[in-house]
Specification:
The chain has 262 residues and is an alpha+beta fold. It has helices spanning 6-16, 50-57, 84-101, 120-124, 153-163, 173-179, 197-204, 207-210, 255-258; strands spanning 2-3, 25-34, 37-46, 68-76, 106-112, 128-140, 146-147, 181-194, 223-228, 231-234.
């Protein structure tokens, strides 16, 4: 495992990761090699609320952003994808890299339940499961495009304009019906790994984390679709077309530099 250039990492992600939307803040790009062949990429950074994330998890301590890094993207070549031994090995290398190259207390990550992922690779890598929360995405009914709320600025602006209000933070049900868009809910699962003695000590201060909540399985996944304002009904796992970008840009802030041709 070694640091690589951002462009090489993003090209790999565009080729092999199910989602082409890059995290908001990527600080480190790591490549996993067998001899000279790149078999995987991990990006580290933070999500949309770096400080609030760590303080919400460790509410008894005054931790700051530099105390942790979050796995933004982790993907492998097809022959390695789904190989839990390889995934566990990558996470072990990642922890060792962090111990050597950072002063972080924790490595944090989320597993995307809406995509049917309870986080088995993190469970196999001895990450501590620390709970779940509901999240929402949009899906274009015609194309199947998965639209992250953070990427829906143009839609939100049109929604607000049609409603005669200054701003919308979420697309309304009426507007979604007009545009042929579904709002879908599911779980995100939180995992954390203390990479230092100080981190392990802090983790022990929280009874809700010490009790070792049962790791989520496929049976813990839920999928809900909005059917009216404020009302959702349970559905089977939705399918998304991750190669369609009608409403959002691929590759983050500068998509044209990294987008792969089909």
């Amino acid at each position: 495992m070694k640091e690589i250039e951002a462009e090489a990492a993003i090209l790999f992600i565009m080729a092999y990761h199910y989602s082409h939307i890059m995290p908001r803040i990527s600080k480190v790009y790591l490549g996993i090699y067998r001899k000279e062949r790149l078999l995987g990429v991990v990006t580290l950074g933070w999500g949309t609320q770096p400080l609030q994330t760590i303080r919400k998890i460790f509410y008894q301590h005054e931790l700051v952003t530099k105390d942790y890094l979050e796995i933004g993207k982790m993907c492998f070549t097809p022959e390695m994808n789904g190989n839990q031994y390889f995934g566990s090995m990558v996470l072990s290398l990642l922890v060792k890299w962090m111990k050597k190259n950072t002063d972080c207390l924790f490595l944090y990550t989320l597993s995307d339940g809406i995509m049917g992922k309870p986080g088995y690779v993190y469970q196999a890598g001895n990450f501590q499961y620390i709970g779940k929360f509901k999240t929402s995405v949009y899906r274009d009914i015609e194309t199947g495009e998965k639209i992250h709320p953070r990427s829906a600025k143009v839609l939100l602006a049109e929604n607000a304009r049609l409603d005669g209000v200054a701003k919308r933070h979420w697309l309304t049900h009426d507007y979604c019906e007009y545009k042929g868009i579904e709002k879908i809910q599911g779980f995100m699962f939180r995992y954390i790994y203390p990479v230092s003695k100080a981190g392990r000590k802090i983790l022990k201060d929280y009874e809700e984390y010490r009790c070792h909540q049962p790791n989520p399985k496929d049976t813990d996944l839920i999928f809900e679709k909005r059917v009216a304002h404020g009302n959702f009904e349970q559905i089977s796992q939705p399918e998304f077309n991750m190669r369609i970008f009608k409403y959002q840009k691929v590759g983050g802030n500068k998509p044209s530099a990294f987008a792969l041709k089909e």
